[in-house]
Design a protein that fits this description.
The protein is an alpha+beta fold. Helix content is 62%, strand content 12%. The protein is globular. The relative contact order is 0.10.
Length: 469
């Protein structure tokens, strides 16, 4: 592990420190437990320990301690906030929030949250003049925490707005382009194409599509994730190739898509991982995919520690890490192909059930078909939508081709849950399934013997119990 997956113990240490501290464990015990668990993982995953590796081991331990202290400190101690703010800001995010609308406003280099009545909804990209008092975001140790939720989106505090009014012409920005594209998609595209494009291009979910895919266990295909970022990277490879200029163009395409989606945490993780891979290709160095996933996770946490509590980031990390470990196992190719859906389901079951209350077993079956189907349907929807979005003659008819394709798929897919109609409820058991899946995949990836594999499995299960109870 020290030579192939050195970023994995670092990711494990940082995540465990955040998990323990987030449950109220004091810093020193949380840090000590995370360090011991990460070093234990490193030693269990190393076949032969060379004495010359002591400096490298010490350096990794130092990074774990330093990274964990930095991350926990930034989540536990909010930065100083002014008592009041006033000025012109830009709405960078707008969404439903309870009985009203939530606005994230970028004002003087800082992001603030404010809530308004539905009739006051302000589109993303609009400039507003806002005045009011600042208060910290609410923090809770259990259940939903506004501070963690909005902190993952870079929000520093909440404005109790006393005045909100338009502030002149809309500024030309990425946010205004997102708002323009959203309105255009809403106006000219048929329902199924509209819902899918809003989800995968702008990160806006359609409630009906979300409910349908939640019943199938395929809701992750609507969330901006590594799956969609991978499709964009594949498009870049097909268009530009592997030359230096081609890799640069692919990188621009990749990050352009991530910014268009609103920099969703899952998309950021995938983009950082793919960028590390592209840099490795350019430098002529082989990158272990699982190590790139772990390194991307650590980098994003260092930028924004609250991402640890983002459901999208967790699902993306768990799915990417489990599948990258599966890819590195000595199993034959057909065996890996058959295991993709069960592995992804098992690795994400605990987190999905925590959000939706249960996880459908149908996902084990449906995802075997859904992933290749959406690999074809989503690019088809984008291509067929371009004429309508540009206002070209016949554009609506072309978009109708993709609409019929989605309708055909959804009609057939709706019958699949009948074969596995059961659901598993939220609980520690599903989190243990996730831990066992990752432990067994890591043991297979590192070719560990029976005793060490059992010790690794036991340590993963123990850490999961400690972090969730």
């Amino acid at each position: 592990m020290l030579t192939e997956l050195p970023a994995l113990p670092l990711l494990a240490g940082c995540c465990l420190a955040l998990a323990f501290a987030g449950e109220g464990v004091p810093l020193l015990p949380a840090l000590l437990a995370a360090l011991l668990a990460a070093l234990g993982l490193l030693l269990l995953g190393t076949d032969r320990f060379d004495p010359d590796w002591w400096p490298a081991l010490g350096l990794i331990a130092l990074f774990i301690v330093g990274g964990a202290v930095l991350l926990v400190a930034r989540t536990e101690a909010p930065g100083p906030l002014p008592a009041r703010v006033g000025g012109v800001g830009t709405v960078v995010e707008e969404r439903e929030w309870g009985a009203g609308r939530a606005l994230v406003v970028a004002l003087e280099g800082t992001r603030y949250l404010t809530t308004v009545f539905p009739v006051q909804s302000v589109p993303e990209g609009e400039r507003i003049r806002i005045e009011g008092r600042i208060r910290p975001l609410e923090e809770t140790r259990s259940g939903f925490s506004p501070r963690r939720y909005w902190g993952a989106r870079g929000v520093a505090g909440e404005i109790d707005a006393e005045k909100i009014r338009p502030a002149g012409k809309r500024a030309l920005s990425l946010h205004s382009w997102r708002s323009l594209l959203r309105r255009r998609i809403d106006l000219v595209l048929p329902p199924l194409v509209r819902g899918h494009l809003l989800a995968v291009l702008l990160g806006v979910r359609d409630p009906a599509l979300t409910d349908f895919n939640a019943r199938l266990g395929t809701v992750h295909l609507l969330a901006v994730s590594g799956f969609h970022v991978g499709l964009v990277a594949l498009l870049g490879y097909l268009l530009f190739g592997w030359s230096a200029a081609g890799l640069g163009a692919t990188s621009l395409l990749l990050w352009g898509y991530v910014l268009l989606t609103g920099a969703a945490p899952s998309a950021l993780r995938a983009a950082v991982m793919l960028q590390l891979f592209l840099v490795g290709v350019q430098l002529g160095r082989g990158w272990t995919v699982a190590n790139a996933v772990a390194a991307a996770g650590v980098l994003l946490l260092l930028v924004e520690p609250f991402l640890f509590w983002s459901v999208g980031w967790r699902l993306s990390m768990l799915a990417a890490l489990s599948l990258s470990l599966l890819a590195g196992t000595p199993l034959p190719r057909y065996g890996k192909t058959l295991l993709v859906s069960p592995v992804a389901w098992s690795a994400t079951a605990g987190t999905i059930a925590s959000v939706f209350g249960a996880v459908p077993l149908a996902g084990l079956l449906v995802n075997l078909v859904a992933v290749p189907v959406y690999t074809l349907l989503l690019p088809l929807a984008v291509i067929c939508s371009v004429p309508a979005l540009l206002g070209l003659p016949g554009g609506t008819a072309v978009a109708g081709v993709a609409e019929q394709a989605f309708a055909f798929w959804m009609g057939g897919a709706s019958a699949l849950p009948v074969l596995l109609p059961w659901e598993l409820q939220c609980g520690t058991l599903l989190h243990l399934v996730t831990a066992a899946t990752l432990a067994l995949l890591l043991a297979a990836r590192l070719r560990l013997g029976g005793i060490r594999a059992l010790l690794l499995l036991g340590s993963f299960l123990a850490a999961t119990v400690a972090a969730t109870l």
